[in-house]
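Board notes (copied after class):
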Amino acid sequence: MGLYDDHAALWRALRSGDLIEKRWLDRFVAIARQAGPELLDLGCGTGEPIGRYLIERGCRITGVDGAAAQIETARLTFPEQVWITADMRDLPELGKFDGVLAWHSLFHLRPEDQRPLLARLGALCRPGAALMFTSGTSEGAEIGEFAGQPLYHGSLDKAEYRARLERAGFEVIAHQENDPACGGATVWLARKA
């Protein structure tokens, strides 16, 4: 997480524009609100703009990020929420939530690290809770770039994601690959049984 620590200000500046994720976030909140508005945001960064959007809709956020500088910014901006510096592969005891979001974060883990986390997500969700995350479109790894530095992205294939979600007690509500209205994100939205 050093890359996001080292470039926390740049990340915040890059994420200060339009919220292209709004349509997906609205669907996520609509499912989560059926159970209540306590949300876990894995890879929350500074809480901008996604955390702010969710907070403005009455959600309570517990944000987890491995980059301490990002978490410190979130704490200063949204002191009434809970912000935790932790690696999502080794989460502290957090309780249960009405929604779990891992937007552009889960795919920074190697596929072999995503598998046990996907299993754990079921235990973090109350019945009826929403789960939303982004992934790649096929199994493998790619190296992207952020601030001129290499940035890892890993993915399972869609059949494995679907099977692992079902084993964790989730029903897939929506899955869209390379959504052009959302910056080309591949999005999964599911509900806990």
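Comment from the instructor: The mean pLDDT is 90. Residues 2-192 form a domain with the Rossmann fold fold (CATH 3.40.50.150).
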